[in-house]
Amino acid sequence: MGSYVPGTQAEREQMLRAIGMEREDQLYADVPEQMLLREPLNIPSGMSELEVRNAMTELAEQNKVFKTVLRGAGAYDHYIPSIVKYIPAKEEFLTAYTPYQAEMSQGVLQSIFEYQTMICQLTGMDVSNASVYDGATAAAEAAAMCRDRKRTVTLVSGAVHPDTINTVRTYCYGSNTELRVVPCKDGVTDLEALQQMLTPEVSSVLVQQPNFFGQLEPAKEIGELVHNAKAMYILSCDPLSLAILPTPKEAGADVMVGEGQCLGLPIAWGGPYLGIMATTAKHMRKLPGRIVGETTDDAGNKAYVLSLQAREQHIRREKASSNICSNEALCALTAGLYMATMGPEGMREAAKQTAAKAHYLQAELCKLPGVELKYKGAFYQEFVTVSPKRCEILTALEDAGILGGLPLGENEILWCATEKVTKAELDKAVAVVKEVLAK
Amino acid sequence: MKLIFEKSVPGRHSSILPACDVPEVDLGVKREEPLNLPELCENDVSRHYTQLCQRVHGVNCGFYPLGSCTMKYNPRIDEEMAALPGFTNVHPLAPKASVKGSEAVLELAAKYLCEIAGMDGMTFQPAAGAHGEFTGVLLIKQYHDARGDKARTKIIVPDSAHGTNPATAAMCGYDVVNVASAPNGCVDLEALKAVLGPDTAGLMLTNPNTVGIFDENILEITRLVHEAGGLCYYDGANLNAVMGHVRPGDMGFDCIHMNLHKTFATPHGGGGPGAGAVGCKEFLKGFLPKSVLMEGEGSIQVRGFAGNFLVVVRALTYLMTLGKEGIPEASTNAVLNANYLMQKIKGTFTPAFDRVCMHEFVLDLSEFKKETGVSALDVAKSLIDHGMHPPTMYFPLIVHEALMLEPTETESKETLDEAAEIFRALYAQAYSDPDYMHAAPHHAQIGRPDEVKAARNPIVRWTEA
Q1: A316 close contact with B: CB closer than 8 A
Q2: Where are the domains of chain B?
Q3: Range B400-412 average pLDDT
Q4: Contact status of A338 with chain B (Cβ, < 8 Å)
Q5: For residues A92 and B113, is the Cβ–Cβ distance under 8 A?
Q6: Domain boundaries, chain A
Q7: Fold of the domain built from segment(s) A82-338
Q8: E strand or H helix at B276, and its extent?
Q9: In the structure, what pLDDT confidence band is assigned to residue B3 with cuts at 50, 70 and 90?
């Protein structure tokens, strides 16, 4: 078996004697006899590192890794620069706890302060927290942050990611508040329906940009409707797209949320990811989660600390704005590192090429007889096609080492492309689809 | 140390992407504001983060006896397995037939953890301990709602509990009933009985509790809650004390969260990502959260997709390594190390409860402070000068001037002996030179930061001068 316990048998006996015991079972004298396990746990025996490596590698090999990924829907296969994989593996970053002791955690604190600043630069917002769990929980926390006693209803556009809608719904279930889904029209939020649903009890409206179907929402127009009704506007953005698309600030958002996975994190079967949350100066003290602030130490030197803790659970207990403590600090560090490595030009290039590849794929697919574009509005990296033989298309692509788009409603496929795929890969995918349709 | 923005040189960059091989597109709308991200070459980035890294104290740097956080050694094989392309390069919505390995990881981890916890079902969707608490209390809420029992509006939490417990109960729409602890730090049965009733939805409890004592009345406690119609939630923060010895399920708990980033050796990453796996008994399995896109409608859901999958990969690697022998051995040694360290410190600082402890213990410095003027904070900050991460301070709230130490099983006898020596030296110094300790740390990255200033005049981002 494997073990990370350093004590030798002799040392353990010596330590037992030092505390006045003879046997290890005396350590558990407080546990009522009838509860103590008499049999060993019903799990396999431990293994050496080499055996574990073999067993885990076998499990990993049971997964199929597609060379080309044309599926997004909340997890985007962007290129991750080499250095972005190496640095977060540094043991100090990896093994440190939350930086409660500022005097020995300036490195973590500064990395978060830099991340917060980069998120503000990217989004145009005034203040970012240190991260929450993922994009879906960021949306749920934002909805909670916008509620007050009089305004308790959350509106969510039906074009928001289904996992996000269900997560917000679950948080609303928890707090005994209501969620209402605004219908879609032509693949975007139905503005007329939204206008009618903006009643005085509505606290906030959550919209995703680009939305689940890949379409660009009229974000600014929606913001005006929301603010006319005196509700708060939560915009969920793809952070990489903000290098070229209007910022949530420009769209009038009060709270920006987003899934930060596209900033240097692997798709990794869904996690760990990164929940981004930023807001305006006005709402800073309502923002949940950890926030790093700059101050000075007793000698007047610049120092970073976890700040504004009066909002948090360890001080406020049941009156806290959220129960969150651990977040995704190392993922935030990774995202900051990704943005620093790419720089403004690299970020713009990644976003531009993502859009270009997706548009090329769309144009080529829609040239094929029988393939139609479902929604005709502007899009960024995803689009929906309608075609016959959906199942055959996706299977043929898989056989060719390509993960095709996500099957949606009947005959629909939600496609995605990023800067990582080459024209040759896209041409190959289109050729496979063409062949299936020609059969 | 300069901020990364202050190192930016216009025009500097790394060469990451090729030229675009398809036509550019105009999306019709565009960002108007400038994008002020730092401009650096790759070596600049590498040096900057290495400098930051040198200003971080990790478990790899030295002793980290942070109570209730289980800062045990994080095995490097776990990291390497979590970086296997077969795990990192898999899309969460890939067809089921192509992700058999991922599904097997969750199944095995669930099976082993259910066995350790004495539970029947498990979800890995929660991303942290507090998130697991939220999920667990929502299981309780759904259970009562499914029976049409709307009268249960209260969650009982002991006054020794972690702040996340009451915060979670409030997030789940419950009123929080705080119950005072008995003088021995355990649940006061009479106080509990007094608050139980038809409005009780459940009890949130950790056992061993936050003062490191196993509550020997646990069966009576869970029986009383069940008798009143409530359910019992086990906060797994202290599970490292009892693995393979006694199971929360056998103590009468109905659901539990486990911090994989504490008990199952996955690293904390400076504050996440963690994983708050939630287990439950058979009758609650139908209420576990699921992803709409992965598994369809009809369930609650606490985040996107299946959770922090790569954290589960690390935990499974650890579980496979330790196995049925190593898991109880880890707990035994966690308890042994805590008792040994407490014994070595005793005679100087005073344990809040002078009895056999579990995996952690609390020192009560209130008398010491009266005599010397040196506070728990002063002692904590002085430890930094000795290269040791301070214990948890001022928690639990029921002990004044508390320092809570959890050495974990992966520390050697020498480390514990050295730590005890440092504590003894600081105890003596408090009598000889208290002022020096009031001003500690003296040799750290910074002196004590002005937290009041940070909160009154918040600077939470860099702005160009």
Answers
A1: yes
A2: 1-17+41-55, 76-319, 331-451
A3: 97
A4: no
A5: no
A6: 9-61, 68-79+347-438, 82-338
A7: Aspartate Aminotransferase; domain 2 (3.40.640)
A8: strand B276-280
A9: very high
